[in-house]
Amino acid sequence: MNYWSWNSSLSVGIDVIDGQHRRIVDYINELNVAHLENDRDKVLEVLTGLVDYTLTHFIFEEELMEKAGYPLSDAHKKVHKTFVAHINKFVEQHNSGKDITRRLMSMLQVWLTNHIKNDDKDYVPLVKKSLNKKKGWISRIVGRLFG
Ligand SMILES: [Fe+2]
Ligand SMILES: [Fe+2]
Question: pLDDT of 110-131, one tens digit each?
């Protein structure tokens, strides 16, 4: 069952980034299914996948921003780092036996919506420009990180 559906207001206009954000939304929906099934092992499994995938997405974005010379990339990196620490706290709470799934899903939805619409959209014009200049390197990075 879908907890959250992707919609075009979340699109940043770079397909490869949109695809990764969609995958994160899918993870949140998988988390919802595991929660509804009352399956704590599955919650942990999805949570682990979500954290891992999100980390890789962040590394990907950070490389793109750096290559494009985006001036706010350090601040953006810090926001990513704080978010990861926040999710890790939820994982710890889950591991200590608490039921954090619904709280986590709503936090993820709010945080991701804001982050995508504000922080991510902000780097898009510069990253797009640099992607047009250096075609080919994006598929190399995708291959290295996600392959
Ligand atoms: Fe992102
Ligand atoms: Fe980001």
Answer: 999 999 999 999 999 999 998 8
